[in-house]
Write a structure and sequence with these properties.
This protein is α/β, with parallel strands linked by helices and 179 residues long. Strands 1, 2, 3, 4, 5 and 6 form a six-stranded parallel β-sheet that branches. Bound molecules: flavin mononucleotide (FMN).
């Protein structure tokens, strides 16, 4: 099973990217977010801009996607929302349609990007993805990882396990239906 990890942060030492490294799955991290151009419906034609085509191919080739999102001003960072706008078209046949996805998040604030996670789930559901239940909200992220990037909170690690399990279960069900 191929699970793609997408961090919504472009920052080198991102807590969200670090969070993805703590997921008990063999994730393939996709790191092309910074190269995605701003969505322009005039450019959303075939062939798609190369970076967009590569992103769509990566998502199409994955059985499931795990997003880790920061929270910017109580919402999803613009660069991540922009990428999802590209992924969501063409609407009826987009690479997100029926794709099993899960959302976790980290922020340096107290609440662990819960608003951004909720908004990202709404956006993904609107695009037709199968959003699995469960969230992991890593608040005070600057205090939650050790020097090796290991999450130092057993409850959060347990929640991360549960979300990963739910995502794999959903992806397996979809594979069984498709077979
Ligand atoms: C533009 C901007 C807006 C932010 N807004 C919020 C916010 O609304 N809530 C919050 O908890 N943290 C907010 N933060 C702090 C982020 O949680 C913090 O920068 C976090 O480390 C970002 O995730 P990353 O480490 O994966 O890059 C904001 C940071 C930036 C740069």
């Amino acid at each position: 099973m191929k699970v793609l990890g997408i961090s919504g942060s472009l920052r080198r030492d991102s807590y969200n990217t670090t969070l993805l490294h703590n997921v008990p799955l063999e994730l393939e991290l996709w790191d092309g977010l910074k190269s995605i151009p701003p969505y322009d419906e005039d450019d959303d034609v075939e062939p798609a801009p190369p970076a967009v085509a590569e992103m769509r191919a990566a998502v199409a080739g994955a059985d499931a996607i795990l997003f880790a999102t920061p929270e910017y001003n109580a919402s999803v960072p613009g660069q991540l929302k922009n990428a999802i706008d590209w992924l969501s078209r063409p609407f009826a046949t987009s690479v997100l349609r029926n794709k099993p996805v899960a959302v976790v998040g980290a922020s340096t604030g107290a609440f662990g990007a819960v608003w951004a996670q909720a908004e990202l789930r709404k956006v993904l559901a609107t695009a037709g993805a199968r959003v699995v239940e469960g969230d992991v909200a890593v608040g005070h992220a600057h205090e939650r990882f050790d020097a090796n990037g290991v999450l130092m909170d057993d409850n959060l690690l347990e929640q991360l396990h549960e979300v990963a399990d739910a995502l794999v279960t959903e992806a397996s069900l979809r594979e069984a239906v498709a077979a």
